[in-house]
Structures are given as C-alpha cells and as structure tokens.
Amino acid sequence: TQLLEQSPQFLSIQEGENLTVYCNSSSVFSSLQWYRQEPGEGPVLLVTVVTGGEVKKLKRLTFQFGDARKDSSLHITAAQPGDTGLYLCAGAMAYTGTASKLTFGTGTRLQVTL
Amino acid sequence: DAGVIQSPRHEVTEMGQEVTLRCKPISGHNSLFWYRQTMMRGLELLIYFNNNVPIDDSGMPEDRFSAKMPNASFSTLKIQPSEPRDSAVYFCAGERDGGTQYFGPGTRLTVL
C-alpha cells in the first residue's frame, strides 16, 4: 500500500503568517497533485506537479515536487482566512490507458484567523 | 454545466438496510471514480470505471459493496446490508482522458 503522510495534521495561524505543509512518501509517483477541500464539498484540484524538482506558483501558493518524486511541499505566503480548509496531496500512478489512480495523503487542516 | 451531481446528500439508515448512492458525472467524462472519506482512513478509492466498464475494484471493502455504471451519465454504489462502520462521506469524481478529476459534493452516510 502506498502511503502519503502529511504534516502537520492541523495548523491554526493568524492572517498574514506564512506556512508550509509537507507530503512525504516512500513511493515514486508519476505526478503529484494538491487539492483543497472545504466543508460539505468535494476536493478541488489546485495544481499538478510532474517533474522532479518542479516548482509551481499559484498566487500566494508555491508548490514543489521533490527531486526523487516522492515528496512535495505547499507553501502559503501571507495566509488569509479564505485559505482555510483541508489540504490534500495525492500521488498519481497511471492506469493502463489515460486515467490515473490517485492515492491521497492524510490531510492537513488549516485554519486562518483574523 | 452543473458539475458532478450526487444524491442523496445525506442518508441516515439503520444497520442491515440497503443503501444506494447515485452519481451523475459531467457530460463527456469517460472515467468515473467512487471514493470514501473518513477521519480515520482519509480519502480512499473504492472503484474506477472507464467507458462504463469497471477497471479497478480493488478498493471495494467487501462483498456488501457493489457499483454499477449502466451508461455514461449514471453510476450507483450500493451497500447491502449496511453496517455502522460504513458511515462515511462517499464521493464520486469524473475525468476525461487523463485530465483533472472533478469531485461531486459527496453523500454523507450514517448507519445507526
């Protein structure tokens, strides 16, 4: 079983602070995805990283894929209350064909207060 | 587009009863996934369909669980008989040709 461990599990910070969430695995993935999930809704894809060492930025969010494609990090600069939610990483392995099998991480619950 | 539609949104039932969860994926999405989310185990893949054919059901917990996809616009996940440990939020998600997976809002199932 491929497991992705996220840390921290819970994070409560004030608006304007920076934070980093980590996603670690012993397995190599073809790509790694980050999702955000809000209460009562399904996860929504934020980004996909494919190449070892790749860095992607999405406004105040910076995503990095480890060189060995086993780990990833999500850094948020100047967090805002709207960033509150459950952040999930997911390792992707391709099925035969085009779809990918996603193995989700344990999740990081972020709360940003005023 | 209305997005992925799941029904019911909430289901409360008693142990031993049959439960059927429904999903309508986004039109044109040829892959459909059923997931289960719990606090203890996180988000787990139950079954994957491609072009209405089950491809990977290795995540289905046991014979009490079954899933069907009679056509491209409809899928069901059935639990019979249900047990309290089946209580979870069940999501379906659709994807087209290896693209982004779009999740539905989920069905929160409580088995008493």
- Could you say which structural class the secondary elements and strand pairing of chain A correspond to? mainly beta
Average per-residue pLDDT of chain A, rounded, comes to 93
**Can you tell me the overall shape of chain B?**
globular
What's the helical proportion of residues of chain B?
A: under 10%
Structure report:
- The complex is a heterodimer of chains A (114) and B (112).
- Chain A has 114 residues and is an all-beta fold.
- Chain A has strands at 4-7, 10-14, 19-25, 31-37, 44-49, 55-58, 61-65, 71-76, 85-94, 100-104, 108-113.
- In chain A, the strands form 2 sheets. In chain A, strands 2, 4, 5, 9, 10 and 11 form a 6-stranded mixed beta sheet that branches.
- In chain A, strand 4 (31-37) and strand 5 (44-49) form a beta hairpin.
- Chain B is an all-beta fold.
- Chain B is globular, with a radius of gyration of 13 Å.
- The interface between A and B is medium-sized, with 20 and 22 residues.
Primary descriptors:
heterodimer; A: 114 residues; mainly beta; 5-stranded antiparallel beta sheet; 57% strand; globular; B: 112 residues; 7-stranded mixed beta sheet; 4-stranded antiparallel beta sheet; 0% helix
Brief account:
The complex is a heterodimer of chains A (114) and B (112). Chain A is mainly β. Chain A contains no helices and 11 strands.
Fold blueprint:
The complex is a heterodimer of chains A (114) and B (112).
Chain A: E1 4-7, E2 10-14, E3 19-25, E4 31-37, E5 44-49, E6 55-58, E7 61-65, E8 71-76, E9 85-94, E10 100-104, E11 108-113
Parallel strand pairs in A: 2-11
Antiparallel strand pairs in A: 1-3, 3-8, 4-5, 4-9, 6-7, 7-8, 9-10, 9-11
Chain B: E1 5-7, E2 10-13, E3 19-24, E4 31-38, E5 42-50, E6 53-56, E7 65-71, E8 74-79, E9 88-95, E10 102-103, E11 107-111
Parallel strand pairs in B: 2-11
Antiparallel strand pairs in B: 1-3, 3-8, 4-5, 4-9, 5-6, 7-8, 9-10, 9-11
